[in-house]
Design goal:
The chain contains 13 helices and 18 strands. The protein is an alpha+beta fold and 429 residues long. It folds into 2 domains: 92 residues, Nucleic acid-binding proteins (OB fold (Dihydrolipoamide Acetyltransferase, E2P)); 300 residues, Bira Bifunctional Protein, Domain 2 (BirA Bifunctional Protein, domain 2, 2-Layer Sandwich), CATH 3.30.930. Helix 4 crosses helix 6 and helix 4 crosses helix 13. The structure holds 4-amino-1,4-dioxobutan-2-aminium adenosine-5'-monophosphate and magnesium ion.
């Protein structure tokens, strides 16, 4: 019977066939140990010379790293194996003896590995990170389905900017100018007025000249938007959402977290509610720690890390100065110099994973903001319309997928959290 490595637990004692690649091997004359992978998992195959046809023994001896084959074997329980199982191989049908594989078990430099990203993703750690990414995506869809949200897909080619004009990707749209979407938010606000609670999940683009471990040029964002939801309710949705994702990964990715040597005791603590501090309190804290920062300035990565150090949980920083945040954020009615917004900072130095806010619902104030930010009311007429026809309090946020994967999987740099990263100096492969 043809099965996958992930299914071996249901076939203990049976003879099965699995299509695999050779990950690694060692041999001791009379016995060969093959580390096999098939995409669904890893398993050790054991070949004993006197128990297999000579032809198959010899074929196995020729196998090079990443050679492809069908193996036949009997599934055995084995407590020492990470997956709990081992395969006693009874036959080998080679598909291809692979050419000399560029990525060997020895250490390689990052640029070399990035040049070979199409092959690098086969390795155990990259495999684990991509599985965790997939589990997070699954949990995202499940959370929103269970909570009554409608999935809406905003456009990727847009006539205007959503998050500021400094990092737009320009392209031609026949005779017009167009930009790749930086955020679907403005369209999601329109969708929330039509469908109530909505979310999008898609690629977004920022032509950012930053070369940090937290920045990608192309990244995936989850953007919920909710009608009749205020700032406080928005934060509650976020903490429940992030807790849900963490608990799903803990439940469904045990082997992957182990392969990455992730300290899961740190993740097990992540349960809503999350701590909150205001921007003002954060500035105080940083100044006491000797950071060179004044009220009105935005936080850099070292500032965020210093704030996060005080907590074992993600922390919301709320009420940023109006001046340094996006034009659409609603001012605090008690204190209009700050906005009803929050950034969620992940623990362990992984930085901002969510940016969100309550949105301006007052048509006159929104028009004022357009003037202050020199935005074209013509280009955004449709957005202004949303405040004319039954405006309501509404809020939303954006969760960056790759930063979330980096945090949960314990991966230093976001470039390893997306299959084919687009970076400042990299468009290949
Ligand atoms: O804080 P940002 O820019 O917020 C927005 O775009 C809002 N329109 C979202 C909304 O309210 N609907 O981006 C949201 C998140 C960040 O917290 C971060 O996790 C991620 O997107 N992000 C990036 N991730 C990787 N590389 C980049 N260059 C990123 N820029 C933002
Ligand atoms: Mg932000």
């Amino acid at each position: 019977m043809k099965i996958t490595i992930s299914q071996v637990g249901k076939h203990v004692g049976e003879e099965v066939i699995i299509g695999v690649w050779l990950y690694n091997k060692r041999s001791s004359g009379k016995i060969q140990f093959l580390q096999l992978r098939d995409g669904t998992g890893f398993i050790q195959g054991v070949i004993v010379k006197k128990e297999i046809a000579e032809e198959d023994w010899n074929a196995a001896k020729e196998l090079t790293q990443e050679s492809s084959m069908y193996v036949k074997g009997i599934v055995r329980e084995d407590e020492r194996a990470p997956s709990g199982y081992e395969l006693t191989i009874t036959g080998v049908e080679v598909l291809q003896i692979a050419e000399e594989y560029p990525i060997t078990p020895k250490e390689h430099g990052t640029e070399f590995l990035m040049d070979h990203r199409h092959l690098w993703i086969r390795s155990k750690k990259q495999h684990a990170v991509l599985k965790i990414r997939s589990e997070i995506i699954r949990a995202v869809y499940e959370f929103f389905a269970e909570n009554g949200y409608i999935k809406v897909d905003p456009p990727i080619l847009t006539p205007t900017s959503a998050e500021g004009t400094t990092n737009l990707f320009h392209t031609k749209y026949f005779d017009e100018d167009a930009y790749l979407s930086q955020s679907g938010q403005l369209y999601m606000e329109a969708a929330a007025m039509a469908l109530g609670k909505v979310y999008s999940f898609g690629p977004t683009f920022r032509a950012e000249k930053s070369k940090t471990r937290r920045h990608l040029i192309e990244f995936w964002m989850i953007e919920p938007e909710m009608a009749f939801v205020d700032h406080e309710e928005n934060l509650q949705i976020q903490e429940n959402f992030v807790s849900y994702i963490i608990q799903s990964v803990l439940k469904n990715c045990r082997l992957e977290l182990a392969a990455l040597e992730r300290d899961i005791s740190k993740l097990e603590k992540i349960v809503a509610p999350f701590p909150r501090i205001t921007y003002d309190e954060a500035i105080d804290l940083l100044q006491k720690k000797g950071h060179d920062i004044k009220w009105g300035e935005d936080f850099g990565a070292p500032d965020e890390t210093a704030i996060a150090e005080h907590y074992e949980m993600p922390v919301f920083i709320t009420h940023y100065p109006t001046e340094i945040k996006a034009f659409y954020m609603k001012p605090d009615p008690q204190r209009p110099e700050v906005v009803l917004c929050a950034d969620l900072i992940a623990p362990e130095g992984y930085g901002e994973i969510i940016g969100g806010s309550q949105r301006i619902d007052d048509p006159a104030l929104l028009e004022e903001r357009f003037d202050e930010h020199h935005l074209s009311k013509e280009a955004y007429q449709w957005y202004l319309d949303l405040r004319k026809y039954g405006t309501v309090p509404h809020s939303g946020f954006g969760l960056g997928l790759e930063r979330t994967v980096a945090w949960i999987s314990g991966t230093e740099h976001v470039r390893e959290t997306i299959p084919f990263p687009r970076l400042l100096n990299r468009l290949y492969p």
